[in-house]
Task: structure prediction
Amino acid sequence: MTSVSIAGCSLGGKAAIETAIAYPGMVSRLVLIAPGMPGYEYRDEETLAKDAILERLIASGRREEVADMLVNIWVVGLKRDRETVDSAARALVREMILDNYPSVTDKFPEAPPEFDVMSRLAEIRVPTLVIVGDSDLPDMQAISQLVADRIHGAKRLLIPDAAHLPNMENSMLFNRSVIDFLVVQ
Result:
């Protein structure tokens, strides 16, 4: 059976984890960028407050404001001033949000897995690199640490001056780290 390296960011990272658990023989390496985690209960009060505002904006059909808020949450993060974050990255993510609005605002875009992902993380036995931006949400920081702690031998990399999309914000360090991880024999 052929195995492959899988990389995924956010919900893509969640899908990569689920794939590695469900089909262990098919995965040779994992690169998990700020992965989502089914069953994880968000705890950060500031994030939860912004999420409540976001839900009201979505319900009222205010697409532009939803896009701006999502950029503020996921690209800017909670610790940085919006003006210090690359305007091209902000604009690109905003455009992607608006272009994919129905799927972006669907709180449950896919069916949950048929197994408890958190309790089965230790079953993943392939080299794993967990990447998270240092300005990502506190709960994403916690999830990345939980994943790195529970997957045997996983390495966690904190990318400086980046939020939820470190591949866009610090692409040189991100690319070098991923390439170095993938080419190690």
Remarks:
- The beta strands are 4-9, 27-33, 128-133, 155-159.
- The domain at 4-39+110-183 is CATH 3.40.50.1820 (Rossmann fold).
- The longest helix spans residues 45-59.
